[in-house]
Design goal:
Length: 242
């Protein structure tokens, strides 16, 4: 999985396909010890949608940075080391912004109020001030990663499954999922059936598969007959005659 995350972060050249998608074949892809073929897909619409969400996160984080900086400005530090360490720790919390800290040394008397003429004792305190800027380089890297996802297949031969067809084959899985949803429908009450013998489980799956086949044929036949009726309407006949 670390390999996959590293590939998504890279700036890669793509080949455009239909529907605002572009993709590229990733080499030397494997999941654990299983050899696979991976295709990195980029969606233009998804990238635009995710970048809008990113802009909102950046604005939200800017307000948090400003609050942290304002809080630290009011704080006195006894040493330069402590002040810089706190500033460095705060910077780790934010990945969209950079904080440029400025250290100010202020000398003040130990006691409050107007000092007496013979008072010479003074102490040094350290204050932090800062300028906040966007980390444009980090943000650009994150933007390039938006809209990307990986499709994987165990089919290793390009002639059997071209990598440009990965996305279309993936989208066609929706029909298979609908078929399984038909089998899992509560009307069949499969949850109430408890089978212990493997042979009976196999028989039940055969019956359900046959039911699914009949269901698919019943769905296909009305659509075909509807198209035939539409072709035989008087308007269609007149258009064909003309």
């Amino acid at each position: 999985m670390k390999q996959k995350n590293g590939l998504i972060k890279e700036d890669i050249c793509y080949q455009w396909i239909d529907g605002g998608y572009r993709c590229t074949l990733l080499e030397q892809a494997c999941y654990g010890s299983v050899e696979q073929r991976w295709v990195l897909v980029h969606s233009k619409k998804a990238a635009e949608r995710e970048n809008k969400t990113l802009d909102k996160k950046i604005e939200k984080q800017l307000k948090k940075v400003q609050q942290q900086v304002a809080r630290l400005k009011r704080k006195n530090f006894e040493s330069e080391k402590d002040a810089l360490q706190v500033g460095a720790d705060v910077m780790k919390e934010f990945k969209y912004h950079k904080i440029n800290w400025n250290l100010e040394i202020i000398e003040k008397h130990v006691s409050r109020g107007r000092p007496k003429s013979n008072t010479e004792k003074i102490v040094k305190v350290f204050h932090l001030s800062a300028t906040i800027v966007k980390d444009e380089e980090a943000i650009e890297i994150i933007r390039r990663r938006k809209g990307r996802f990986i499709l994987a297949s165990h089919e290793l031969k390009e002639e059997n499954l071209p990598y440009l067809s990965f996305l279309s084959e993936y989208k066609n899985q929706n029909q298979i999922e609908k078929s399984f949803a038909f089998i899992k429908n509560k009307s069949f009450q499969l949850a109430s059936i408890f089978l212990k013998k493997p042979s009976r489980i196999t028989a039940l799956m055969a019956v359900m598969s046959f039911s699914l086949m009949v269901y698919g044929c019943c769905r296909t036949s009305p659509s075909k007959s509807t198209r035939r009726k539409e072709r035989n309407t008087p308007q269609s006949i007149r258009e064909n005659y003309i």
